[in-house]
Design a protein that fits this description.
Blueprint: H1 4-18, E1 25-28, H2 36-40, E2 45-51, E3 54-59, E4 63-68, E5 74-79, E6 90-95, E7 99-104, E8 108-113, H3 121-124, H4 135-142, H5 152-155, H6 167-177, H7 190-209, H8 217-225, H9 230-233, E9 253-257, E10 260-264
Antiparallel strand pairs: 1-6, 2-3, 3-4, 4-8, 5-7, 6-7, 9-10
Helix pairs in contact: 1-7, 4-7, 6-7
Bound molecules: zinc ion.
Zinc ion binds near residues 248 and 250.
Length: about 270
């Protein structure tokens, strides 16, 4: 499943096609949404917002389109009227005079009154968003008493803890902060937790700007120049089982936490 940085990159493409343009045609596949087509047609798209792994398209008619891609949803944009070649089921199409944006396969789509997002069951339970929240909010959330007794390896996939986190960012941020995945916030010092908050934000935003690279950028560039493949220089520890840790040369360990693979260095993250 794509993580915060990949969702934001996808949103950028949709925003480039729709922002500040008038919708000339709106198609919903689901019957209960069809009545909204008329209200949305003729409205202008004001912004494309990401909230964790959900997307909100805000318009100037007082309505916002909410979608969550889950595992299979996929957005595609094309020149106006040109249809992507795919066997996927079309669920939503937004057209303007220049471009068309299509959402395939997703089933979690709704139309909300702008400003009523707080009542949406998924949006209401999201923690601070790692792509947009200020560091102070993330620091506070990481120490929030509601979460202190669960291990960080689990918490960092909980969208109610931090929205937009995902599997590679979990391994990478724990490694950069030097924290073992079995530790709970209550086991960590304030400085460690603040370091974790900073690592999460730094890595998420770097990954967004550098198309998924979370490794130290100087090292990544050097490894690339040596001829290594992207998968080999992309991360500090993620997907590097048995390879030497870049900091201490100890072998990276692969384990499973919350049913997803997790990588860490047993020495740097003792
Ligand atoms: Zn190490």
């Amino acid at each position: 499943m794509p993580e915060g940085p990949e969702i934001r990159l996808a949103a950028d493409k949709i925003e480039a096609a729709l922002h500040d343009r008038e919708l000339t045609e709106v198609f919903f596949a689901f019957d209960h949404l069809k009545p909204y087509s008329r209200s949305l047609t003729g409205s202008k798209v004001l912004a494309v917002e990401t909230r964790g792994k959900a997307l909100l398209i805000h318009t100037n008619c007082g309505l916002s389109i909410y979608s969550h891609n889950q595992l299979y949803g996929r957005w595609m944009t094309r020149k106006a009227g040109s249809m992507p070649k795919t066997n996927r089921q079309l669920r939503l199409a937004l057209h303007n005079h220049d471009y068309s944006a299509y959402l395939f396969s997703a089933s979690d789509i709704s139309v909300l009154e702008t400003g009523q997002q707080a009542q949406h069951p998924f949006l209401a339970r999201l923690g601070p968003d790692i792509m947009s929240a200020p560091v102070a909010d993330v620091r506070r959330q990481i120490k929030d008493p509601r979460f202190t007794r669960r291990c960080l390896g689990q918490l960092l996939l909980d969208q109610g803890y931090l929205a937009g986190m995902g599997n590679y960012l979990r391994s990478e941020s724990l490694h950069v902060a030097g924290i073992h995945p079995d530790r709970r916030p209550t086991d960590c010092g304030v400085e460690e937790l603040d370091r974790l908050a900073s690592s999460i934000l730094k890595l998420a935003r770097q990954s967004y700007r550098q198309r998924g690279i979370t490794n130290d950028l100087v090292r990544a560039r050097a490894l690339k120049a040596e001829g290594l493949r992207r998968s080999e220089y992309r991360h500090w520890v993620f997907a590097r089982e048995g390879r030497p840790c870049y900091r201490c040369c100890e072998k990276v360990i692969k384990t499973r936490v919350a049913s997803r693979r997790l990588y860490y260095c047993p020495r740097c993250q003792a």
